[in-house]
Amino acid sequence: MTFDRSLKIAPSILSADFADFGREIRAIEDQGADWVHVDVMDGHFVPNLTFGPPAVKAFRRHVTTVMDVHLMIAPVDPYIEAYAQAGADILTAHVEAGPHPHRTLQAIRASGMKAGLALNPGTPASAAEPLLDLCDLVCVMTVNPGFGGQSFIHSCVDKVRALRAMIGDRPVHIEIDGGVDPTTAPLVREAGADVLVAGSAVFKGGSVETPEAYGTNMRAIREAVTA
Ligand code: DX5
Ligand code: ZN
């Protein structure tokens, strides 16, 4: 993985057909996805449950781009090695997940992955500042984590701008997660984001039988950003 700030679309497979992940992953990649975003939820840090390491390892066989794993779990540290073994390229943990995010980021890098730090909508940009040298990515949540299909929280756009200034020349991606669609994508891109996670806005209207809709949906986001 080389670093750049070009626009990247990372469809969240939380909006895929849960009985057909292999074909869904191949469909979004064929249709132009840059990364594949995997939402791990524990029913404790967030009120929903999704995938453990064996499921993520099975997804890996189908991912040819970048597997971007977003942990919405607490605690994080006991599971880092399992997600490394599952093949995550990037492992993102929430700053709110425990008292030692600095140790968590170090452990993620020590396990051979890129380290991401996610911020809930209620967490200020300043929470990331002391940790930026340990981060390869900062994920700004623009919904409260736990579910796909929620509305974008506009007050988070200023936080993206603040983080972009804080990051300066450091090779740290800014990822946006939640409510990204052709109307909200330009706002966060302009504020400095380079990775846009999108679940419902990518998968809507398509299926593994009609994957062209995924391509159309991703193009609509790219075109809105470059317009
Ligand atoms: C929310 C997840 C997101 C979610 C995005 O907890 O982290 O990745 O799937 O879904 P949309 O794009 O539908 O808001
Ligand atoms: Zn996510």
From TrEMBL:
Catalysis: reaction(s): D-ribulose 5-phosphate = D-xylulose 5-phosphate
Keywords: Carbohydrate metabolism, Cobalt, Isomerase, Manganese, Metal-binding, Zinc
Family annotation (PROSITE patterns): RIBUL_P_3_EPIMER_1 (PS01085), RIBUL_P_3_EPIMER_2 (PS01086)
Residue sites binding substrate per the record: S12, H70, G146, F147, G148, G149, D177, G178, G179, G199, S200
EC number, as in UniProt: 5.1.3.1
Keyword Isomerase: yes
Top EC class of this enzyme: isomerase
GO biological process: pentose catabolic process; pentose-phosphate shunt
Pathways involved: Carbohydrate degradation
Domain of life: Bacteria
Cofactor annotation: Co(2+); Mn(2+); Zn(2+); a divalent metal cation
Gene3D superfamilies xref list: Aldolase class I (3.20.20.70)
Sequence similarity: Belongs to the ribulose-phosphate 3-epimerase family.
Function: Catalyzes the reversible epimerization of D-ribulose 5-phosphate to D-xylulose 5-phosphate.
Identification of the protein by name: Ribulose-phosphate 3-epimerase
Provenance organism: Salipiger mucosus DSM 16094
Source species taxonomy: Bacteria, Pseudomonadati, Pseudomonadota, Alphaproteobacteria, Rhodobacterales
